Amino acid sequence: MSNAAIASGDDLTTIALILSDGFAPEMLDVEAQIALAAAYRRLGLLDEAGATLEKIERASESGLVEPYWEERVNLALATGDLVAADAFLSRWRLSRGGNPSGAELALRARVLVRGGAERVELSAVLKRLDGLDADRATATRWRVAAVLAERDPVAAVGILGGEEKLAQWPSLAEAEIVETLWQVGRSAETGGDESTALIAYQALGERLPGTERGADAAYRAGRLLERRQAFDEAERAFRRAATHPAQLERRVATASIGFHEVADPWMRGQEEP
């Protein structure tokens, strides 16, 4: 069985290919065994993933490859064992003579944020990652922000680089970015931080107004702008909200009522001599 055959399928297909007809995973090369462990992990078969990785380590005679350590840390994160994750990160760096790789720093940042590390410590790791692999650093910042979003939306925006950086969308699945921004906005608004909420809502609503979540964000931005009496900006946000076909009628009606309730008295006041 070839690595290409394994790589061509989804996780279920990968496992089925390897385990069909009593095929022994140990007969595969190391990269394919790691791919099997990753497939187990993504499907929630964590014990099977761990057993596969342990067999790889026991059979290793000439050192362990980078993807092995990466999968070890990913599995520890999946089980919630941050102590084990940190230990594997340390062994990984030791195997490189103390020199970190981009992959290791990216996972170290994810372990730190899951453990509640201070923003200063997180930022130091991300800054070092910036110098090694800028694309990976950008993607990692979004994943770190996704964890921070609920408990500290201000820190999440800061990790992403502030308002001016939010338009620089990385090569992540769109859903990851959308949910991160939405969570930042909702958490900030619930916590009374309307400025941070508005940053997140506007970034999402302006970039993806034609999606349901983008339309929701544009609508929330419009309501916040109304409260600031920024009526022209609010109207533009409501128009963006109305671009989602499934929500058009409800959004136009709600936005129109909300806007005019606040705007009409103000506009009449402006017209008085």
Question: Can you summarize this structure?
Answer:
By secondary structure, the protein is mainly alpha-helical. It is built from 15 helices and no strands.
Runs in which pLDDT lies below 50 for 5 or more consecutive residues are none
Helix content: over 70%
Round the mean pLDDT to the nearest integer and report it: 84
- Return Rg in Å: 24 Å
Number of helices: 15
Taking the sheet with the most strands, its summary is: none
Strand content: under 5%
Distance between the termini: 85 Å
Order of helices and strands: HHHHHHHHHHHHHHH
How would you classify the quaternary structure?
A: single chain
Structural class: mainly alpha
Broad shape? elongated
Number of strands: 0
Task: Give a topology summary.
Blueprint: H1 3-7, H2 11-19, H3 30-42, H4 46-59, H5 66-79, H6 82-95, H7 102-114, H8 119-132, H9 134-151, H10 153-159, H11 174-190, H12 194-207, H13 212-227, H14 231-241, H15 248-271
Name some characteristics of this structure.
mainly alpha; 15 helices; 273 residues
